[in-house]
Design brief:
It is built from nine helices and nine strands. By secondary structure, it is an alpha/beta fold. The chain is globular, with a radius of gyration of 18 Å.
């Protein structure tokens, strides 16, 4: 089976700042991977290059053995980016139906609503929803093309603890490959099969939560990354 994601020797710099430094990573189909790291670790840059939004300085990336743009165009990949804007004065139903119209073989509307946890509020206007509900709408738009891979870039950024719990609790991934970046260890612990930790553009830990904890407490290691005590 072709791997969902293959990254080989990825490097990306912004002027004199090396955001991603020789990253290699393979994600098999069906896996849920959490990408952790402090601000500036290279998580968002890695995702942006993977999705074809940024050109790499060196290295290669592929999605299901294809280039990123081709895979996304054919609906193989659904993307939920940080703080993407939503149009005001439209209902959830109108927005999701518009998103479905973009793809050649979209997921049925009722399945999108169910998987995104939007049942009962799909006739509401988007600008009248809570922050957590708006994040579910963004998730619904990522599901619209019936993707095999979901890429969620900081999906709960800016939400409080209760809203984060509510967001994850109402979602259904339905066996898809999922890659999500996060600053929250509890999210990785609960929802990921595998955790990859980045720091200064490099991969510094890779394994299941249990495997990483064998070498020491995961939270202590993460705090050490943030404080710069380890490279």
């Amino acid at each position: 089976m072709t791997d969902a994601i293959v990254i080989r020797g990825l490097r990306k710099a912004y002027r004199h700042v090396l955001a991603v430094d020789g990253l290699s990573l393979t994600v098999p189909q069906g896996q849920r991977l959490a990408l952790l790291g402090p601000n500036g670790a290279g998580k968002t840059t890695t995702i942006s290059v993977l999705l074809g939004l940024l050109a790499p300085d060196a290295g290669t990336t592929s999605l299901f053995g294809r280039d990123s743009r081709s895979a996304i165009y054919d609906g193989l990949v659904g993307v939920m980016q940080q703080e993407i804007g939503l149009p005001p004065r439209v209902t959830v139903r109108e927005l999701v139906r518009f998103a479905r119209a973009v793809f050649p073989a979209p997921l049925p509307y009722d399945e999108i609503v169910a998987q995104a946890g939007l049942a009962g509020i799909d006739r509401s206007r988007v600008d009248r929803l809570s922050g957590g509900q708006r994040q579910r709408v963004r998730f619904a738009m990522a599901l619209a093309g019936d993707p095999k891979l979901l890429v969620l870039d900081e999906p709960t950024a800016g939400l409080d603890v209760e809203a984060r719990r509510d967001f994850w609790g109402g979602l259904s991934m339905s066996g898809r490959t999922v890659v999500f970046s996060s600053h929250h260890l509890d999210e990785a612990d609960r929802f990921a099969d595998r955790i990859v930790v980045m720091n200064r553009g490099r991969l510094v830990a890779d394994g299941t939560s249990a495997e990483i904890k064998k070498g020491g407490d995961l939270e202590d290691a993460f705090l050490a990354l943030i404080s710069g005590r380890i490279a």
